[in-house]
Amino acid sequence: MINHARQRGATYAFNTEYLRHEEDKNGVTVFLKDHLTQHEYSVRTKYLIGADGANSKVLQNAGLSVQGELARAGTVYTLFEADLSQYTAHRPSILYWICSPDAAFGEIGFGLLRAIKPWNQWIAGWGFNIKDGDPDLSDEEVIKKIRTLVGDPNLEIKILNKSTWYVNQAYAHQYSTDRVFCAGDAVHRHPPSSGLGLNTCVQDAFNLAWKLSYVLKGYADQRLLQSFSLERAPVGKQIVLRANQSRLDYAPLQKVFRIPGAENPIAAGIKNFRDPSPKGVEARLAAQKALELKQYEFNAQGVEMNQRYESNAVINETEPEVWKRDKDLYLQATTRPGAKIPHAWLINRKGYKLSTLDIVGKGDFTLITGLSGQLWVQAAKKLNLSFLQIRVIGSLEYQDPYCEWQQRREIQENGVLLVRPDGFIAWRVMQADGFSVQQAQTQLENAFTQLLSS
Ligand SMILES: Cc1cc2nc3c(=O)[nH]c(=O)nc-3n(C[C@H](O)[C@H](O)[C@H](O)COP(=O)(O)OP(=O)(O)OC[C@H]3O[C@@H](n4cnc5c(N)ncnc54)[C@H](O)[C@@H]3O)c2cc1C
Fold this sequence. Notes:
The protein has 454 residues and is of the alpha+beta class.
């Protein structure tokens, strides 16, 4: 990433701390400190992006804030080297939840092993009660706990790192001022459950980058930048709540593994599973139900892929979307403005497969129509916009031999989609029967005016 950004003219200042900034009508003055030389200096810039993580100073100094609850629970994570291949060979996985009569330490009652480099480098994690203060992180204690989690009292372990982190449920309602934009963990703070962290941060960046670029290049009015917060703040809220819910959704699972009051509650819980009596039947059914709930953590495609934007950077349709299946679990592919363009396999002129996801973007808007939508092609060419690329699906370059796109596009073949550089659909026209090229051009022009001008 650094190399790519460098090639495009970015400069870097490592070992440099952001101290504060002052924003005015024309720009931002940022005060920095070089930690190698201890030199403090300022930089004048048109815009400032605060991607400075969960303790964001930029957010604070911009007068923005996250609301919610910080440090709801604590977790120890320790990175270590140990050869666990003999334990994983028959069921290789990236993540193991460990529940055994001996490993019920921590608040949650489960331990976790995460493969970092299969099968020799791992993270072990367990919860701790924050009311009891800092947990014991001595090598001796940590090694003892890892051995217990693995179930091997003689396991050779090399500890590489030990840390604690806290479960947060907090998000910002507003991500930007006129010239300062905050993104990533700075504006959404949540536990790793559901794996929504890094990807959401990258999506924030993707959303903001093309907009800033368009404003700086003079393709768009500064008003476009307002859509960043309008589009991303609802997503931030959604994923913060989802990740925290996924964590809470362990409660039924913990319940089936634990018999309160028993001498060893976990041992008693596990014993229940082998019990032929109605008690055992009940435990087995409860376990199945508890695991079904975890689909919302591990198999929830909709959580990320059903995000919909409503803002001045989308020409939304008035009719509300009807969700055909569970919105969190299942992807609902659609070409409605505000949604990400659906994936469909196409074949190019050389016979290679390519996805509709890959024929858009790269900094440009994309006009997509079908073979009978030639009037859109002519209209787009007349507009002569340097940032508009044209794709005719059904042409030799973008063949649709399995009719995947035809099934998913929702618009008629002569309709049109206008897709933003980040792959989100900005506008669509369902069909163009009886349209003249001039009418198509006017519609296209109006759409761009609405999307990019004040
Ligand atoms: C234990 C754990 C497990 C996780 N697991 C997953 C997972 O499975 N999947 C997933 O998608 N995500 C996961 N995440 C989340 C993911 O790591 C974060 O969402 C992501 O790294 C946040 O990126 P960011 O760039 O916003 O912030 P950060 O990665 O925190 O980067 C912020 C940067 O800003 C720098 N900085 C801060 N203040 C200043 C300052 N004043 N001046 C200069 N520099 C500054 C910091 O040094 C840092 O380099 C996990 C997080 C944790 C803690």
